[in-house]
Design brief:
Structural class: mainly alpha
Number of strands: 0
Strand content: under 5%
Oligomer: single chain
Largest sheet: none
């Protein structure tokens, strides 16, 4: 279960201010469709990823997934730091 207090302490207020609920939900649905079973971990450690516009998030995901031969989510599950590649 997500610990909202810990998440609030990790991130700047601007991350929360810039979150768009509709965009956030679209990204979650996308990750679910990609069979990501660690979305809570992503939210907890990389909430700012949800500030990317949905289309940009999907585009970056597809590039990373291709780079990692279709195994990006599997590899990121083992090492969440791979998610930092979204920022490049």
């Amino acid at each position: 279960m997500l610990n909202v207090k810990n998440i609030r302490e990790k991130f700047n207020k601007s991350v929360f201010k810039n979150l768009n609920k509709e965009n956030y939900m679209k990204i979650i649905k996308f990750l679910l469709n990609e069979n990501c079973d660690y979305i809570e971990n992503i939210i907890s450690d990389y909430l700012d990823l949800f500030n990317f516009e949905y289309e940009e998030f999907v585009e970056k995901y597809n590039i990373l997934n291709q780079k990692y031969n279709g195994e990006f989510l599997k590899l990121a599950k083992e090492d969440l730091e791979l998610l930092e590649e979204f920022y490049y």
